[in-house]
Amino acid sequence: MNHHAEQRFHKNLYYALQSMRGRHVGPFVRRLQAWERLDRASFEHLTRMLLRDALSYARTHVPLYSSGEWQTALSRADANELSHWPVLERSMLITHRSQLRARRFTPGVFARNSSGSTGAVVSVSYNPHAGGWSWAQEYRSMHWFGIPTGSRTLLLWGGGHPLLDWVRNCRVFSTKNLTFDQLERAKHYLLEQRPVLCMGLPSAIAQLARHVRAHTPHAPEQLVPFVKLGGEQVYPFQREEIAQHLGARVFESYGSTEMGPIAHECPAGSRHIMSDHVYLEIFNGDEPARPGEFGDLVLTSLFNRAMPLVRCRIGDRGRLSPDPCPCGLPHPVLSELVGRAADMFVTTDGTLVHGSEIGRRLQLFLSTAPLGSVGQVLFQQKDPAHWNVLVESAAGFTDELAAQLRQIVHSTFGESCRVDIERVALVPREKSGKYRYYRRAEST
Ligand SMILES: [Zn+2]
Q1: Whether residue 116 has pLDDT greater than 70
Q2: Does this UniProt record's set of keywords contain Ligase (predicted)?
């Protein structure tokens, strides 16, 4: 079977299987493709209609939205107008989960759970239709790059679903145990199977990219045409390393447990909001931010009828671009995106620093360290003046590299910090298989 026949075989099988489960991914992809060809005004009208339907359903079917603050705000106002709705804090998904579930029972409801890396686990129920729409979003946006559904894919992710992964032509390598042998297996898959797409966690794909170049320096310059990153914060150095070592075109997607897909990069490099899936607002405290202002992302799901979330503050922050993207897609652009505020660390003089600052400096370190000398690194803060750094290291790991790691802590958190460097065979992953470059030691 050639690549094209193989891709069509897997696409047809995958769409058929998902339809049997009530998730009409194929028809939804075609619907989304028709919507994305609308002019901006018609597209905005469409998303406003989808939003009104979602709000009307939420108000009548969700117990929480006819109680307390919501009852006060909505009883004498038009509940189909989003501006009347209070903000739903993410913590309420844990404390008020049962009151957020719709009264009507829908068969086939399933849950998506957060990794728990930033506090208590959030579990969100989805109806099969909503699941279908979220998968359709993923596949539709890959079409922007000319990658059809069913294309041969290497997936580096926390876990998989053996049957479904085979059906959609995905070979999964778990990131929970990214040992030398596991990286070798992924490398051989790249070299021998030549997938069209490599998809998954940026920390893992960057590690694989370095591994391939360190151990097979004469491998073809381009090992995979496309790499799609998601699931973790992406650092520019990771993108550069992946592009350089795998010879791939790299793009990013952004989503969350609460909402599913939220934004996806287009070929022109803009991060487009999937506004035919979620309605996104930026808030400053309890008020919508001014146009172009940086603030909290507040999201409303357009299709989830099992646990309809309206104006949920998910903890990430960002900024909307005032300008449309030259690519012509009618979806608005999220020009800036910063991960959860919960990832703040305190320095020796009491200043708060976002953990991504460590990630940024570490990526620079990894991209300049000799290939193969360092695997992953984890910075653990025991208290404001004491850090413990776990390093997966090989023969090439020198005192000079250890000093550079200490310097990352000293320059970010204060020269007086004590920094212990501990060389380990494998840095432990989060339960989800996601990788974090930094964490507080008590949260381990
Ligand atoms: Zn664009």
Answers
A1: no
A2: yes
